[in-house]
Fold this sequence. Notes:
Blueprint: E1 6-11, H1 15-26, E2 31-37, H2 40-50, E3 54-57, H3 66-76, E4 81-86, H4 91-99, E5 104-107, H5 112-123, E6 128-129, H6 131-143, H7 156-166, H8 171-178, H9 182-196, H10 201-210
Amino acid sequence: MNGESVRVLVADDQALIREGIASLLSIEPGIEVVGTAADGRAAVELALATTPDVVLMDVRMPVLDGLRAAELLRERLPACRVLMLTTFDDEEYVVRALRAGTGGYLLKDLPPKDLARAIRLASAGVDQHDSAVLQRLVTALDRSPVAATPRVDLTDREQAVLRLIARGATNREIAARLFVSEGTVKNHVSNILSRLGLRDRTQAAIYARDRGLL
């Protein structure tokens, strides 16, 4: 493998799935599988020993579940991106994974080539989420009760942009709603993420929901 290969660790408690994923990834160009783990604790320990670029992590695993393992890796190995790869698309799991700072939430029915692409993008800092997962997140946001709006260090226009982000609007749609250019919207989004210490639009949506800004 060359120095530009994405180094991946696969964590899944089912041996057949774990080894199958590892075998499929090992033949993908630009991807190197550095190890496999059968539970969350083993995944954390192996990741600390091998420093992979990306960890593919199942949600439900013995000893330590994947979500807690993802939280520990964020604390102890912040340069490593964690991709949740699971059969479960429960809203609770999705929200917990996003709060844990994972780089994506994918379902196991995606094609191998799409999984390899998601790993490469995650390594480059681009979050990857299954479309069904995003729909569940939007549904959860829509159902959330509205709380009292706290003081937020954003301008009125930035709060308006944040609300539209939380409702799933694209930059083009936000620009049309607010009668500004897409470039202006991009600047607002960048400022919002920076001021609130958030990584991406999905975390911004969670932030808006938690603070009753919808």
